[in-house]
Design brief:
seven-stranded mixed beta sheet; about 30% helix; Methyltransf_16; developmental protein
């Protein structure tokens, strides 16, 4: 992949999330998986190769990213994986008609703070529709001020931190990159918080 713009480059977070999927490859097998903000779709492709029923999605406003999803599927002999245009924060017919989901994947979707609430609005909608589902996400810590804690609380979501060493993703060569700056990658699993009294 030659272009390092958003969804046309394999970012270190995608490599880490793909490593998690591979380390836990029995978990996605037979499950229904949706990757949001998929771009070149490395985590989604790995999930499909592990036996998951995968749907890839990226913004309906980014046809180049949707084409990247399709190209990745073809290059990995996964021609039947559906690719949908889903824009964060927007309730579209495609979002409303999604089949049940077990796992939502998102690598480095928490990139621009202006998108954080739209992302979590979409995740909340999907988790409300699929209360047993989880959102597996990796993100790069770009600022000490980076936090979604208040938004998680607002949307009645909880998160569990997943240490990278627990799935062999703490090696520098795994998520190394030629990008300037520090590359601290974190992973968390987000789910619906339990209502009081349940």
């Amino acid at each position: 992949v030659l272009d390092s713009q958003y969804g046309t480059y394999v970012w270190p977070c995608a490599v880490v999330l793909a490593q998690y999927l591979w380390a836990h490859r029995r978990s996605p097998a037979g499950k229904r998986v949706l990757e949001i903000g998929a771009g070149v779709s490395l985590p989604g492709v790995v999930a499909a190769r592990c036996g998951a029923q995968v749907i890839l999605s990226d913004s309906e406003e980014l046809p180049q990213c949707l084409q990247s999803c399709r190209s990745s599927c073809l290059m990995n002999r996964l021609p039947h994986v559906p690719v949908l245009g889903l824009t964060w924060g927007r309730v579209s017919p495609e979002l409303l008609s999604l089949a049940p989901i077990d796992i939502i994947l998102g690598s480095d979707v928490f990139f621009d703070p202006k998108d954080f609430e739209d992302i979590l609005t979409t995740i909340y909608f999907l988790l409300e529709k699929n209360p047993h589902a989880q959102f597996w996400t990796t993100y790069q810590v770009r600022s000490a001020d980076w936090s979604i804690e208040a938004l998680l609380y607002k949307w009645n979501l909880k998160s569990i931190h997943v240490p990278l060493h627990s799935f062999g993703a703490d090696k520098e060569h795994l998520a190394s990159s030629s990008m300037p700056g520090r590359h601290t990658i974190e992973m968390m699993i987000i789910s619906l918080a339990q209502s009081e009294g349940t």
